[in-house]
Write a structure and sequence with these properties.
With about 230 residues, the protein is α+β, with helices and mostly antiparallel strands. It is built from 5 helices and 7 strands. It has 2 domains: about 1-30; about 45-225, Muramoyl-pentapeptide Carboxypeptidase, domain 2 (2-Layer Sandwich), CATH 3.30.1380. It binds zinc ion (ZN).
Length: about 230
């Protein structure tokens, strides 16, 4: 009986020591962006409003009004790699012919924020967030979340669903919604896609810029961007 007790006790101890080491390894790996090998373009982050002051900003992640319920950015600013930023200026100019301007929800996003989104999102909604093991195209400053505002009223244009809504209304090919909502969404998608962006199939507001794979994942804060 005593031998058996000792055996159980020592294997229990070994088991918990191993778990602690494993957990420590897991934590130390998963709190750092993935290390990517190869050649990358050097980063040239541009603040969008400095290229075009008619972009409207609604940086939800700097407010409580986002799916995490609290601010995850300390500054309401938006940056992209220069070629993507310049393409977005073209989109904004073209939209003026239709009476709209671009409303920006998010652009460059530090990797640690992507990690936080992944950790707090339940399994069934993971398609709406990027896996931090691969990083997000937002982390490469080559993805942007946008909508439209009306030039004559300044009001946000109606879309099929809300920003960051985790439902099928967010799908870029969702067929429900009013005629106006679908027309606005399709206008946004067509002008973005003419200018080198590709919509994400599960989110009408999310667009990746061509050549995103040439840029590294970054984890610098907005305040550190020169
Ligand atoms: Zn996005």
């Amino acid at each position: 009986m005593k031998t058996s007790y000792n055996h159980t006790h020592s294997s229990g101890f070994l088991f918990s020591a191993a778990s602690i080491i494993f957990l420590a390894l897991l934590l130390s790996c998963s709190h750092k962006p993935p290390q990517e090998k190869g050649n990358f373009e050097s980063s040239d982050l541009v603040e969008l409003v400095k290229l075009d002051s008619s972009f409207h900003l609604d940086i939800r992640y700097a407010t409580n009004n986002n799916f995490t319920g609290r601010p995850v950015y300390t500054e309401a600013r938006a940056f992209l790699q220069r070629p993507a930023a310049e393409a977005l200026v073209k989109v904004n100019k073209e939209l003026k012919n239709y009476g709209y301007g671009l409303l920006i929800f998010d652009a460059y996003r530090p990797w640690s924020v992507t990690k936080l989104f992944w950790d707090i999102t339940p399994r069934e909604n993971k398609k709406f967030v990027a896996n931090p093991k691969k990083g997000s195209r937002h982390n490469r400053a080559c993805a942007v979340d946008v909508s439209l505002y009306e030039l004559n009223t300044g009001k946000v244009a109606q879309m099929t669903g809300q920003y960051d809504e985790m439902s099928e209304r967010s799908y870029s090919n969702y067929t429900g919604g009013t005629e106006e909502q679908c027309k606005n969404r399709d206008l946004l998608i067509s002008i973005m896609e003419e200018n080198g962006f590709t919509v994400y199939e599960y989110e009408w507001w999310h667009f990746d810029y061509q050549g995103w794979e040439k840029y590294r994942i970054q984890d610098i804060q907005f305040s550190e961007i020169k």
